[in-house]
Design brief:
This protein has 372 residues and is of the alpha/beta class. The chain is built from 13 helices and 15 strands. It folds into 2 domains: 251 residues, Aldolase class I (TIM Barrel, Alpha-Beta Barrel), CATH 3.20.20; 68 residues, Orthogonal Bundle (Arc Repressor Mutant, subunit A). The strands form 3 sheets. It has a 9-stranded mixed sheet, with helices on both faces. A 3-stranded antiparallel sheet has the order 10-11-12, with no helix packed on it. A hairpin with a 2-residue loop joins β14 and β15.
Length: 372
Amino acid sequence: MSGLYFHIPFCRKACTYCDFHFSTSARGREALLDAMEKELVLRAGELGDAPVRSIYFGGGTPSLLEPARIAAFLQLAHDLLRVRRDAEVTLEANPDDVTAERLEQWKAMGITRLSLGTQSFRNARLQWMGRAHNADQALRSIALIAGAGFASWTIDLIYGLPGMTLTEWDEQLAIALGHGMPHLSAYALTVEPRTALAHQVRLGRVVPAGDEAAAAQFDHLMARMKAAGLLHYEISNFGRPGHFGLHNSSYWEGAPYLGIGPAAHSFSGNTRRWNVASNARYTTAVEKGEPFSGSETLTAAQRTNEMLLTGLRTHRGVQLDALPVDIRPDNEQRIVHYVSQGLAQLDGGRLVLTERGRHFADRIAMELFAEP
C-alpha cells in the first residue's frame, strides 16, 4: 500500500507556534497549484502499481481552497494512480472555513475524513496562538461535522500551554468528548526555533510550561481517553475502533508515500525526498522542468533508527527481529532495564512501551539506535 500527500502552503494567519512551511499571502497561488498538478503528473510513476490507500490534504490550510480545486486534485489522482475504492481521503480544515455547504461539497467530491484544527475552546488561548477562529466557531464547526455523515473526523487540541492547569485541560477534553468525537490528536506545545513563540520566550514575555505540568496533562489525557473508549494507538493520537488515521499510520509503519507541493516529503522505502521550501522557487522550477527537490538513500542503520523512532510511538511497538540492523546484542541490558522499570513490555520479540514509558518514547528510541 502507499499514500499520497498534498501540501497546501497557505494560511489566513500565522500561528505563533508553527514552524511548517506556509504563506499568508495569496500571491502566485493559482500558479503554484497548477505546478502541483504538473508535479503529480511527472511523479505518479514513482508509486508504480502500489494501491493508494490514503490521500491527505495538509498544510497550511487546505480548506482555504475553492472546492473545485480540491476536486481537481482528487480527480487527477484517480486518473494517474491506483486509488482504492475504500481509500481514506483526509482534508485538514479550520473552523472558520466550515459551513454546511462546504461540508456537502467536500463529501460529494470524495473527502471521507476531516481533521479540524481546533487547538482550544478558549478565546484567550486562540488569540494568543494567533488562530483565525474563535471558540464559538470551533463549537459550531464540530456540531456541523458531527452531523454531516463523514466516515470519520478528528480534532486537534494543544496542551502544555503556559499557565495551563489540569482543570483547564480537563475542561477542554470534556468539551471535545461531549460532541462525540471518534478521534483526537493532542499535542504538547513545543517551542520551535524561528517561530514567534520562540522569540517571545527569548524576550521573557512567555514562560513555557514545565515538564512536570506537561507530563501531568499527558497522564490525564491518557486516562480520560481510555475511560471514554478511545484507544491510544500513537503517542499523540487516540481513536475509537475503526477510526484510526490510516494516512499517518502509513508513515509510522514505513509505507511508501508521495508528497506533492513545496516542502512536501516523499519516501520510497529506502529513499527520502524533500521538495524546496519556497513557493516561488518551487513554482518556477516545476514550470521550467528544473530540479526542485533533494534526496538521500537511507543506510540500514538509518532505516533501523527511523523504525525505532516511529514504531515505539505506536501501540504496536517494534518487532525487533524485523529491523534491518539487529540491535539486540548491543542493547540487551537496556531492554531488560526498560521492562524491569515498567517502561516497556517484551512479547514475542516485540517491544512495546507502557503508559509510563510513553513519556520517554523518543529518549528510549535514541538509546537503542543502531550505530551509523
